[in-house]
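ZP: hey, is the FE2/S2 (inorganic) cluster complex queued? I don't see it on the tracker
AM: it wasn't, my bad. submitting now with these inputs:
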Amino acid sequence: MAITLTINGTPTTLEAEGDMPLLWALRDLAGLTGTKFGCGAGHCGACTVHLDGEAARACSVTLEEAAGRSIVTIEGVTGATASKVQDAWLRHQVAQCGYCQPGQIMTAIALLEAGYGDAETVEAVMSGNLCRCATYLRIRAAVLDAAI
Ligand code: FES
Ligand code: FES
């Protein structure tokens, strides 16, 4: 079936079954491989995108559920908060292998855009994004830095 959604500001029609995970559609059909596959079950946060402005796990949203909605991926995220987060990530040299980082950054931007930048909330929300390289201390420092 043909499913139309907005990806990074561009109306996009994809030919796929409605139950295909959004993550598959982004990577395999739209060619946006910045969003990563980790667990495929909603546990690790590697696949985090923005769905109508809120952080969402693309492996756990079907294409049908995303129809008509606005999706922003790491390739298309823009704005003042995104710039502050990206700058803070560089200042704190957060990334190691980098695999989890798109998801971490998308979660951080959504958190800060929702108005939360206190240490307790940052810890609670960011703890849902796993990092096999254990960059947690630098992630927390960068998010708090970007929140100032
Ligand atoms: S791949 Fe989606 S939460 Fe792990
Ligand atoms: S930087 Fe390697 S998994 Fe997070």
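AM: back. Residues 116 and 122 are 7 Å apart (CA to CA).
ZP: great, adding it to the tracker
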